[in-house]
Amino acid sequence: MEAPFDVIARRAGIGNATLYRHFPTRAALVDAVFRDLLTHTMTVGEQARTAEDAWSGLCDYLAEIFTVLATDRGANDLMTTHLEGVETLETVHAHNRETVEILLRRGHAEATIRADVTTEDLLFSFAALGRAVPALTAATTPDAWRRPLTLFLDALRAPTLSPSPLPTPPLTPPQLATTLHQLGPDRGPHPGPHEKR
Protein backbone atom coordinates (compact mmCIF):
# COMPACT_ATOMS: atom_id res chain seq x y z
CA MET A 1 0.00 0.00 0.00
CA GLU A 2 2.93 2.34 0.67
CA ALA A 3 5.16 1.54 -2.33
CA PRO A 4 6.24 4.69 -4.24
CA PHE A 5 4.55 5.22 -7.59
CA ASP A 6 7.85 4.95 -9.47
CA VAL A 7 8.41 1.48 -7.98
CA ILE A 8 4.87 0.43 -8.93
CA ALA A 9 5.37 1.75 -12.49
CA ARG A 10 8.70 -0.04 -12.86
CA ARG A 11 7.29 -3.36 -11.68
CA ALA A 12 4.33 -2.94 -14.02
CA GLY A 13 6.69 -2.22 -16.92
CA ILE A 14 5.24 1.21 -17.68
CA GLY A 15 6.40 4.80 -17.30
CA ASN A 16 5.51 7.08 -14.40
CA ALA A 17 3.59 9.41 -16.69
CA THR A 18 1.41 6.57 -17.94
CA LEU A 19 0.64 5.44 -14.40
CA TYR A 20 -0.23 8.97 -13.26
CA ARG A 21 -2.39 9.55 -16.34
CA HIS A 22 -4.57 6.57 -15.50
CA PHE A 23 -4.33 6.79 -11.69
CA PRO A 24 -3.69 10.36 -10.52
CA THR A 25 -3.82 9.34 -6.83
CA ARG A 26 -2.92 6.27 -4.77
CA ALA A 27 -6.58 5.97 -3.79
CA ALA A 28 -7.59 5.75 -7.47
CA LEU A 29 -5.01 3.01 -8.07
CA VAL A 30 -6.06 1.01 -5.01
CA ASP A 31 -9.71 1.37 -5.95
CA ALA A 32 -9.06 0.01 -9.45
CA VAL A 33 -6.86 -2.88 -8.29
CA PHE A 34 -9.12 -4.09 -5.50
CA ARG A 35 -12.59 -3.15 -6.78
CA ASP A 36 -13.58 -6.71 -7.80
CA LEU A 37 -12.45 -8.10 -4.47
CA LEU A 38 -14.28 -5.42 -2.51
CA THR A 39 -17.42 -5.89 -4.57
CA HIS A 40 -17.23 -9.63 -3.91
CA THR A 41 -17.00 -8.88 -0.18
CA MET A 42 -20.29 -7.00 -0.34
CA THR A 43 -21.88 -9.85 -2.29
CA VAL A 44 -20.85 -12.26 0.47
CA GLY A 45 -22.36 -9.87 3.01
CA GLU A 46 -25.66 -9.83 1.15
CA GLN A 47 -25.72 -13.64 1.15
CA ALA A 48 -25.01 -13.69 4.89
CA ARG A 49 -27.90 -11.32 5.57
CA THR A 50 -30.37 -13.72 3.94
CA ALA A 51 -29.02 -16.90 5.56
CA GLU A 52 -31.59 -19.19 7.15
CA ASP A 53 -30.34 -18.22 10.60
CA ALA A 54 -28.08 -15.46 11.87
CA TRP A 55 -25.48 -17.76 13.42
CA SER A 56 -24.72 -19.68 10.22
CA GLY A 57 -24.82 -16.41 8.28
CA LEU A 58 -22.23 -14.84 10.57
CA CYS A 59 -19.99 -17.92 10.56
CA ASP A 60 -20.08 -18.26 6.78
CA TYR A 61 -19.49 -14.53 6.30
CA LEU A 62 -16.43 -14.41 8.55
CA ALA A 63 -15.02 -17.65 7.10
CA GLU A 64 -15.21 -16.14 3.61
CA ILE A 65 -13.64 -12.85 4.71
CA PHE A 66 -10.84 -14.57 6.61
CA THR A 67 -10.07 -16.80 3.65
CA VAL A 68 -9.33 -13.63 1.69
CA LEU A 69 -7.34 -12.07 4.55
CA ALA A 70 -5.22 -15.23 4.83
CA THR A 71 -4.46 -15.64 1.13
CA ASP A 72 -4.04 -12.05 -0.09
CA ARG A 73 -1.67 -9.85 1.92
CA GLY A 74 -2.59 -6.77 -0.10
CA ALA A 75 -6.28 -7.31 0.59
CA ASN A 76 -5.50 -7.84 4.27
CA ASP A 77 -3.60 -4.55 4.49
CA LEU A 78 -6.41 -2.78 2.67
CA MET A 79 -9.29 -4.18 4.68
CA THR A 80 -7.74 -3.94 8.15
CA THR A 81 -6.18 -0.47 7.93
CA HIS A 82 -7.55 2.99 7.23
CA LEU A 83 -6.91 4.46 3.80
CA GLU A 84 -8.57 7.76 2.91
CA GLY A 85 -10.28 8.41 -0.40
CA VAL A 86 -10.87 4.87 -1.67
CA GLU A 87 -14.56 5.11 -2.46
CA THR A 88 -15.18 1.39 -2.91
CA LEU A 89 -13.36 0.60 0.34
CA GLU A 90 -15.43 3.14 2.27
CA THR A 91 -18.58 1.59 0.83
CA VAL A 92 -17.37 -1.89 1.85
CA HIS A 93 -16.63 -0.77 5.42
CA ALA A 94 -20.13 0.73 5.71
CA HIS A 95 -21.68 -2.41 4.18
CA ASN A 96 -19.67 -4.65 6.52
CA ARG A 97 -20.86 -2.72 9.56
CA GLU A 98 -24.47 -2.92 8.39
CA THR A 99 -24.12 -6.68 7.76
CA VAL A 100 -22.77 -7.21 11.27
CA GLU A 101 -25.55 -5.11 12.79
CA ILE A 102 -28.24 -7.04 10.92
CA LEU A 103 -26.80 -10.42 11.90
CA LEU A 104 -26.38 -9.39 15.54
CA ARG A 105 -29.96 -8.16 15.76
CA ARG A 106 -31.20 -11.41 14.26
CA GLY A 107 -28.88 -13.47 16.47
CA HIS A 108 -30.10 -11.70 19.59
CA ALA A 109 -33.72 -12.30 18.57
CA GLU A 110 -32.98 -15.96 17.80
CA ALA A 111 -31.04 -16.35 21.10
CA THR A 112 -28.01 -17.75 19.29
CA ILE A 113 -25.68 -14.79 19.98
CA ARG A 114 -24.91 -13.37 23.42
CA ALA A 115 -27.26 -10.51 24.20
CA ASP A 116 -24.43 -8.27 25.46
CA VAL A 117 -22.32 -8.46 22.28
CA THR A 118 -22.25 -5.21 20.30
CA THR A 119 -21.30 -4.33 16.76
CA GLU A 120 -18.19 -2.60 18.07
CA ASP A 121 -17.15 -5.75 19.98
CA LEU A 122 -17.29 -7.77 16.80
CA LEU A 123 -15.66 -5.21 14.50
CA PHE A 124 -12.75 -4.60 16.89
CA SER A 125 -12.07 -8.31 17.38
CA PHE A 126 -12.49 -8.94 13.66
CA ALA A 127 -9.89 -6.27 12.81
CA ALA A 128 -7.41 -7.41 15.47
CA LEU A 129 -7.60 -11.07 14.47
CA GLY A 130 -7.54 -10.19 10.78
CA ARG A 131 -4.27 -8.25 11.17
CA ALA A 132 -2.68 -11.29 12.85
CA VAL A 133 -3.70 -13.77 10.15
CA PRO A 134 -0.71 -13.27 7.79
CA ALA A 135 1.79 -13.80 10.61
CA LEU A 136 -0.11 -16.87 11.80
CA THR A 137 -0.29 -18.50 8.38
CA ALA A 138 3.35 -17.66 7.60
CA ALA A 139 4.46 -19.42 10.77
CA THR A 140 2.16 -22.44 10.49
CA THR A 141 -0.27 -23.58 7.78
CA PRO A 142 -2.65 -21.75 5.42
CA ASP A 143 -5.70 -22.85 7.45
CA ALA A 144 -4.27 -22.07 10.91
CA TRP A 145 -6.56 -19.02 11.21
CA ARG A 146 -9.60 -21.29 11.50
CA ARG A 147 -8.77 -22.22 15.11
CA PRO A 148 -8.64 -18.68 16.57
CA LEU A 149 -11.65 -17.68 14.47
CA THR A 150 -13.62 -20.61 15.93
CA LEU A 151 -12.58 -19.56 19.45
CA PHE A 152 -13.64 -16.00 18.66
CA LEU A 153 -17.01 -17.13 17.33
CA ASP A 154 -17.62 -19.36 20.34
CA ALA A 155 -17.17 -16.32 22.57
CA LEU A 156 -20.16 -14.81 20.75
CA ARG A 157 -22.43 -17.82 21.15
CA ALA A 158 -25.32 -17.71 23.57
CA PRO A 159 -24.40 -19.51 26.85
CA THR A 160 -27.05 -22.16 26.24
CA LEU A 161 -25.29 -23.42 23.10
CA SER A 162 -22.45 -25.91 23.04
CA PRO A 163 -19.01 -24.76 21.85
CA SER A 164 -17.78 -25.83 18.44
CA PRO A 165 -14.97 -28.38 18.03
CA LEU A 166 -11.70 -26.64 17.19
CA PRO A 167 -10.81 -27.32 13.55
CA THR A 168 -7.01 -27.21 13.46
CA PRO A 169 -4.21 -28.27 15.85
CA PRO A 170 -3.08 -25.76 18.48
CA LEU A 171 0.10 -23.77 17.96
CA THR A 172 3.30 -25.34 19.20
CA PRO A 173 5.61 -23.13 21.31
CA PRO A 174 7.97 -22.57 18.32
CA GLN A 175 5.02 -21.68 16.07
CA LEU A 176 3.76 -19.18 18.63
CA ALA A 177 7.22 -17.61 18.89
CA THR A 178 7.47 -17.33 15.11
CA THR A 179 3.95 -15.85 14.85
CA LEU A 180 4.68 -13.23 17.50
CA HIS A 181 7.97 -12.39 15.80
CA GLN A 182 6.11 -11.92 12.49
CA LEU A 183 3.75 -9.46 14.19
CA GLY A 184 6.66 -7.18 15.06
CA PRO A 185 9.25 -6.53 17.75
CA ASP A 186 8.36 -6.77 21.40
CA ARG A 187 4.83 -8.00 20.73
CA GLY A 188 5.06 -11.13 22.80
CA PRO A 189 5.88 -11.82 26.45
CA HIS A 190 9.49 -11.14 27.37
CA PRO A 191 11.51 -14.17 28.48
CA GLY A 192 12.10 -14.57 32.17
CA PRO A 193 15.53 -14.05 33.74
CA HIS A 194 16.54 -17.67 33.25
CA GLU A 195 15.25 -17.99 29.67
CA LYS A 196 17.39 -17.36 26.63
CA ARG A 197 16.41 -14.60 24.24
TrEMBL record:
Keywords: DNA-binding, Transcription, Transcription regulation. It comes from the Bacteria. The keyword Isomerase does not apply. Residues 161-197 are annotated as: Disordered. Pfam families: TetR_C_43, TetR_N. Residues 162-173 have a biased composition (Pro residues). One of its GO terms (molecular function) is DNA-binding transcription factor activity. Residues 1-41 form the HTH tetR-type domain. Coiled coil: none annotated. Residues 4-23 bind DNA. InterPro entries: Homeodomain-like_sf, HTH-type_TetR-like_transc_reg, HTH_TetR, Tet_transcr_reg_TetR-rel_C_sf, TetR_SbtR-like_C. The keyword Transcription regulation applies. Residues 187-197 have a biased composition (Basic and acidic residues). PANTHER family: HTH-TYPE TRANSCRIPTIONAL REGULATOR BETI, HTH-TYPE TRANSCRIPTIONAL REGULATOR RUTR. This is TetR/AcrR family transcriptional regulator. It comes from Streptomyces diacarni. The lineage of its organism: Bacteria, Bacillati, Actinomycetota, Actinomycetes, Kitasatosporales.
